[in-house]
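Hi V.,

You were right to ask for the full record rather than a summary. Here it is.
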Amino acid sequence: MGESSGVRPVGGDEGCAGRPRVTELRLSAFAGHRRAAFPLGPLTLLAGPSGSGKTTALRAYEALARLGAGAGVGEVFPDPVACVPERARPDAQRRRGFRIGCTADGPEGPVRLDVAVQAEPELRIVGERLSAGGVVLLETALRDPSRPYVQAAWHTAGQSPVTRAPLPDDRLGTTLLPLRVAGKTDGQRRVLAAAEQMVVALRSVFACDPRPERMRGPVPVGSGRLLGGCDNLADVLWRTRAECGRRHARFVAEVRAGCAGAVADVVARVRGDGTVRAELDRGDGILTELARLGDGELRFLALSLVLLTGPGVLEVDPVGEVPAAMQTLTVLADGFDRGLDPGQRQELLRLAARMCARGHIRVLGVVSDASGVAEAGGVTVVHLEP
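Predicted structure:
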């Protein structure tokens, strides 16, 4: 499992040339994947039978994103043993682990990050390598298992070619470099620029898998930021309808294409008990509550809203110190086509391709069936085999 095959890119990556973005995901040894490398375009779909590791690859990307945002390894991998390849045998010290990595392209060119994580007997990052243009910019290694840090060496290109210092073993060293590298030499500035590109490419991620069973009823008035399960869809619709009429009109047009019956508008109303209920306005005085919609209709509605909005509406953690124009939101969509009929599926793919072509959003989705995907255009399909 995990060896990619039949990779078919359709369309290019021109729309986001100036924005850092992840262009390859590597699962050297992760759960069921070994020596797997997946090319990622603006819109990438992972396809394959059950058990081929599609969702696992998506979770590996999300794990890298959370590490890039500064999360601790224990938060990112609550069940690390599940990430260890099944046939991996412990060494003489009873150690087992896994390895993941990615490439981020941008102003600094392709920058590679590879991470080795020890899962047993205790969870820790035991190795990390950040490189660009054939030069290793940062490398860490576990020298003394009894201490909670790794020995790090980063490129200096000054009087001393490298600088060495300990870094904690529960955080990604790449995220800590701005606190440790002075930026006085050309080499140090190159290290900082590469680390920033990687962090910016990874951080702005929205993992999404709409749950129709939680979208049907009224929800409390909240932050107006969409959760990954889209449980609070009605609250977000109440906000977006009031804030941007043009974007809401585009959303209504998509709902009209993906839902049965006439759709004149999508409305959300605050009730006396402080909850919000969303409804479809049929245009003839009839309002249809979301509770009456099918699972496919609700997933289509939620995913369309995700594609038409951005970090200000979705529950994501963008890099606050970097201008929005230099960031790319990546949507991780498990079950991208789950519950959708062929018409909904094609309409959602067309919308995703249009939005991704603009360069400010990228999508990595999991589909059960890749037939007919090429008709949408602008899609990279990665076929996984069990």
